[in-house]
C-alpha cells in the first residue's frame, strides 16, 4: 500500500521540451477528430461492387455432380453447380467477392477470417435443380456457413447477403421455369394446329359423304318410282290375266257344243280341242309365272324383273296367237253347219273377248317393263352414290383416326398432377433454391458481440485511467541506489494488482449481465492477461512520453477498434487495416476475446494472448528505458 500511495503522491512532473508539450497539446485538441475521422475513414476505402455495396470476401465450394436428362427429346447434361459458380463470379451486385476453392481451404479461410462466408454447393444440386420438371420436385439447397467469432456484424452481413443471393438465384430459376412453361404452351399450340391440319381430310371426307348421301337419296327416289311403276304394271297384268281363264272356259264350252253338231266339223273341232287344251296349259303356266313374279318381286333385281316380264309377255303373245288361230278354225266351222251358228257366234264372241283383253295385257306388260327400266336406272345411280359414300366414309375414318391420334398426342404432352404434387410444385417454383445458414462457432448474440468488443475497450480505458492517477515511478525511486529493473518492478506490481482487480470486476459484471462465453475458463484467463498487458503498455507509454503517451493511447483507440474488424467488417476497411489488426494491442485483444466468447478457435485466442504478452513486455522495456534516461545518480563527496 505504501508503494501505491507513493505512486499516487508522485505525479509526472518531469520537464518536457517545448516541442513535446506542443505535440501533446495538439493531440489533446485533435483527439475528437482523430477518433471520429479514423472510425469514418475506415469505411471510405472499402472495395465495392457496381451497386456500391462492399464486396464481402466469400468462398464457394462446388461439390455438384452433373446429371443427364431428356430435354426436348434429346439427352442433355446439366451441370447446375458449374452454372451457379459462373453466375456468382460474373455477378457484380451480389455483395460478395467470390473465390472458388475446395472444402478444406474454405474451412481454413473461414476460421482465419479470410472468408466471411462459405457457400457449399451439394453433390445433388443438379438433380434437385431439374427435379421441378418431374413428378417429385424438390428445392435445391445451398449450405452457407459463417464465422461469428471473427465478426458479429460480418456474420450478420454474410447471412443477409446470402439471403439476397438465394433470392436472386431463385428468381432466375423461377424465370427459367416460367419460360419453359410458356415454351410448353407454344409447343401445345403447334400440336393443336397440327391436329387441325390432320382434321382436314375429315372435313373433305365429310363433304364427299354428304354429296354421296344426297346422290344416294336421289337414286333411291328414282328406284322407288320405278318400283311403283313396276308394281302398277304387274297389278294391271294380274287383272287382265284373271279374265283370260273365264274367257277361255267360255270358248271351250262353245267349242264342245259345236262338236256335237256335225261330223264335218268333228276333225276340225278335235284339232281345235287339242289347240284349246294347249292354250289352257300355257295359260296355267302363264298364271303360275305371274304368281311367281308377284311372289318373288321384292327379292328380284330390276334386270331379273325385266327378264321375267319379257318372258311373260312372250308367253301371253303366243297364247293370243293360238287363240286367234282357234277363232279362225271356228269361222271355217261356221260354213259347215248352220245348226252350230249360235254356238259359233258364242265361240266367236268368246274369242273376240279374249282377243280384246290381249292389248290391255300387252299395255300392262309394257308399263311393267318401263317401271323395270326406271328401277334399273335408279339402282345404277344408287350403286354409284354408294361408291361415293364409301369413299367419303373412308376419308372420314382416316381423318377421325388422325384426329384421335393428335388429341391423344396432346393429352400425352399435357402433364397431370395430383393435389399434393401441385402444392409441392408451387412451393418449389416459388422458392426453387433454399439456403441453410450455419455458424462455424456457436450462434452468438448481440450481447456476446458487444462483450467481445467492449471488454477489451474497457480494459484499455481502465489502464489509461490508472495512469491518469498513477505515476509510472517516483522521483524518490529514481534518486535511489536501486537498480533500474527493481525500480520498474516496484512501480509496476501495484498497477498489475489493480489490473487483476479490474479484470475480476469485469468478469463478475459479465456474469451478472448474463453473458455466457463459449470458453469460460479461457475467457477469464484472456481477460486477466489482456488487462495486465494493457497496464504494462500504458506504464511504458506514460513513462516514456508522459502526457503525450496518454494522448497517444486515447487517439488510437478508434483505430484499434476498427482494425479488429469485429464491429466494422474488415471488408469495409482499407487493406492496410488488416495488417494493423495483427499488431495493435486492442485489435488483437478484441479478436482473441471474440473467438473465446463465441466458442471459436482457441488457437487464435492463444496466439492473441502471446502477442499481448509481447506487447506487455514492450511496455516494460519502455519503462526501463525511461527510468534509465531520467535517473539521477548522486556522487559521494570527498
Which descriptors would you attach to this protein?
single chain, 638 residues, alpha/beta, abc type-2 transporter like fold, Four Helix Bundle (Hemerythrin (Met), subunit A), 3 domains, five-stranded mixed beta sheet, two-stranded antiparallel ribbon, 7 strands, 6% strand
Give the H and E element order.
Answer: HHEEEHEHEHEHHHHHHEHHHHHHHHH
What level of helicity do the residues show? over 70%
Low-confidence stretches at least 5 residues in length (pLDDT < 50)?
Answer: 33-52
β-strand percent reads 5-15%
* Class per helix and strand makeup: alpha/beta
Q: pLDDT average, as an integer?
A: 69
For the biggest sheet, the summary is: 5 strands, mixed
Number of domains: 3
Global Rg: 65 Å
Beta-strand segment tally: 7
Treating each run of at least 4 consecutive H or I residues as one helix, how many helices?
20
Biggest sheet: strand arrangement: 4-1-5-6-7
The outline comes out as: rod-shaped
Amino acid at each position: 500500500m505504501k508503494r501505491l500511495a507513493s505512486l499516487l503522491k508522485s505525479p509526472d512532473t518531469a520537464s518536457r521540451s517545448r516541442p513535446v508539450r506542443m505535440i501533446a497539446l495538439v493531440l489533446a485538441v485533435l483527439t475528437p477528430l482523430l477518433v471520429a475521422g479514423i472510425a469514418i475513414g475506415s469505411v471510405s476505402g472499402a472495395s465495392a461492387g457496381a451497386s456500391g455495396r462492399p464486396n464481402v470476401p466469400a468462398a464457394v465450394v462446388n461439390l455438384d455432380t452433373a446429371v443427364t436428362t431428356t430435354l426436348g427429346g434429346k439427352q442433355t447434361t446439366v451441370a447446375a453447380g458449374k452454372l451457379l459458380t459462373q453466375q456468382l463470379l460474373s455477378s457484380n451486385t451480389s455483395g460478395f467477392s467470390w473465390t472458388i476453392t475446395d472444402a478444406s481451404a474454405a474451412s481454413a479461410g473461414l476460421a482465419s477470417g479470410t472468408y466471411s462466408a462459405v457457400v457449399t454447393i451439394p453433390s445433388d444440386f443438379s438433380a434437385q435443380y431439374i427435379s421441378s420438371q418431374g413428378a417429385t420436385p424438390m428445392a435445391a439447397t445451398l449450405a452457407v456457413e459463417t464465422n461469428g467469432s471473427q465478426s458479429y456484424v460480418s456474420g450478420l452481413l454474410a447471412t443477409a447477403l446470402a439471403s439476397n443471393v438465394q433470392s436472386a438465384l431463385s428468381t432466375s430459376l423461377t424465370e427459367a421455369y416460367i419460360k419453359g412453361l410458356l415454351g410448353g404452351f407454344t409447343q401445345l399450340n403447334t400440336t393443336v394446329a397440327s391436329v387441325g391440319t390432320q382434321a382436314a381430310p375429315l372435313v373433305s371426307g365429310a363433304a364427299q359423304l354428304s354429296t354421296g348421301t344426297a346422290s344416294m337419296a336421289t337414286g333411291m327416289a328414282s328406284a322407288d318410282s320405278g318400283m311403283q311403276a313396276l308394281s302398277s304394271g304387274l297389278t294391271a297384268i294380274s287383272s287382265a290375266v284373271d279374265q283370260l281363264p273365264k274367257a277361255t272356259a267360255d270358248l271351250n264350252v262353245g267349242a264342245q257344243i259345236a262338236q256335237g253338231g256335225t261330223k264335218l266339223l268333228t276333225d276340225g273341232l278335235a284339232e281345235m280341242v287339242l289347240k284349246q287344251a294347249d292354250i289352257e296349259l300355257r295359260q296355267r303356266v302363264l298364271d303360275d309365272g305371274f304368281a311367281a313374279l308377284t311372289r318373288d318381286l321384292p327379292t328380284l333385281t330390276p334386270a331379273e324383273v325385266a327378264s321375267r316380264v319379257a318372258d311373260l309377255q312372250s308367253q301371253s303373245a303366243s297364247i293370243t296367237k293360238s287363240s286367234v288361230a282357234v277363232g279362225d278354225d271356228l269361222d271355217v266351222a261356221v260354213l259347215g253347219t248352220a245348226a252350230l251358228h249360235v254356238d259359233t257366234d258364242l265361240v266367236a264372241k268368246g274369242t273376240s273377248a279374249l282377243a280384246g283383253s290381249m292389248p290391255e295385257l300387252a299395255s300392262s306388260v309394257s308399263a311393267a317393263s318401263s317401271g323395270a327400266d326406271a328401277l334399273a336406272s335408279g339402282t345404277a345411280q344408287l350403286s354409284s352414290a354408294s361408291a361415293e359414300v364409301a369413299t367419303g366414309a373412308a376419308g372420314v375414318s382416316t381423318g377421325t383416326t388422325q384426329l384421335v391420334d393428335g388429341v391423344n398426342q396432346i393429352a400425352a404432352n399435357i402433364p397431370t398432377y395430383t393435389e399434393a404434387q401441385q402444392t409441392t410444385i408451387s412451393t418449389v417454383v416459388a422458392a426453387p433454391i433454399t439456403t441453410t445458414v450455419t455458424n462455424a462457432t456457436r450462434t452468438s448474440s448481440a450481447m456476446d458481440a458487444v462483450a467481445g468488443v467492449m471488454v477489451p475497450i474497457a480494459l484499455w480505458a481502465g489502464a489509461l485511467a490508472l495512469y491518469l492517477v498513477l505515476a509510472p515511478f517516483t522521483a524518490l525511486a529514481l534518486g535511489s541506489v536501486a537498480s533500474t529493473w527493481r525500480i520498474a518492478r516496484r512501480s509496476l506490481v501495484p498497477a498489475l494488482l489493480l489490473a487483476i482487480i479490474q479484470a475480476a470486476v469485469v468478469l463478475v459484471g459479465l456474469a451478472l449481465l448474463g453473458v455466457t462465453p463459449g470458453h469460460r475458463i479461457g475467457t477469464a484467463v484472456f481477460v486477466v492477461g489482456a488487462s495486465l498487458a494493457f497496464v504494462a503498455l500504458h506504464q511504458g507509454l506514460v513513462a516514456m512520453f508522459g502526457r503525450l503517451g496518454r494522448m497517444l493511447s486515447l487517439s488510437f483507440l478508434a483505430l484499434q477498434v476498427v482494425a479488429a474488424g469485429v464491429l466494422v467488417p474488415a471488408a469495409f476497411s482499407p487493406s492496410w487495416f488488416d495488417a494493423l489488426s495483427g499488431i495493435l494491442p486492442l485489435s488483437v485483444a478484441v479478436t482473441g476475446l471474440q473467438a473465446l466468447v463465441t466458442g471459436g478457435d482457441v488457437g487464435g485466442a492463444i496466439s492473441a494472448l502471446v502477442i499481448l504478452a509481447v506487447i506487455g513486455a514492450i511496455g516494460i522495456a519502455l519503462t526501463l528505458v525511461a527510468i534509465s534516461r531520467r535517473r539521477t545518480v548522486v556522487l559521494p563527496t570527498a
